[in-house]
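ok trying this again, last paste got cut off
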Amino acid sequence: MNVAVIGSGTMGNGIAHVFAQHGFAVALVDVQAPALDRALATIARNLDRQVAKGTLAEADKTATLGRIRPCTTIAEGVADAELVVEAATENVDLKLQIFRELDRHAPAGALLASNTSSISITRIAAATQRPAQVIGMHFMNPVPVMQLVEVIRGYATSDETTARVMDLARQLGKTPTAVNDYPGFVANRILMPMVNEAIISLFEGVAGVAEIDTVMKLGMAHPMGPLQLADFIGLDVCLAILRVLHEGLGNPKYAPCPLLVNMVMAGRLGAKSGEGFYKYTAGSKELVVAPYFAK
């Protein structure tokens, strides 16, 4: 089966990795050639880790990389695709634009999936002439490690499309879970209010960054505290999801904390920018509270 993945960032390269590792031919599409180079290098490093752990043979690593074909245009990347997975930035206008283009260039029978973590699949599907073939396929980060795929049915998504995507997720060694198309779906409808409440607790001076995360790690058995997790997800992504929840559900409990808004405006986006609630230094795994919160 031929698969196209649109977007070569953290999620896109992870999705391409798992499909290629499980025998699928993958076209990885990004308009920026340097981004594709970085993505392929990341996939190679992650495969090297699997080899070092003994979970993947060196020959399988070589075969996996050989199944990934970089492309700089959607038309080229999806020309023979049977499944397209869009993993672009969490921006509704960008996703609608991409799906219009996918609809023009992908074969008539191709399924069009979005890795969106919060944007309405029904709205995305309405930008195409094949809404029955449009579905959400929300992978978790890091994709090669995390078991869950949240499969989101839009209003017009067919039973056949849902069944095929659920089966494909199982072929990747994942556990698919079908949910309906409401803002935030299940994962982020529950997760993001918790993250936002942790930020509000910090904003109101209830406790410091490390203290809030320690309570949740040791008291609630979370592997990572909510503030560290927000850094890992990207504070801009957290803000975008909260705004989708707030607008889509009309409930003030989803309103993003002003501290989160200010941090995103200041470019403090978490691990990817080098600083969020914690400070990140290349080559170091030490968890250090950001200077702004260490006063």
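PB: full thing came through this time. The mean pLDDT is 96.
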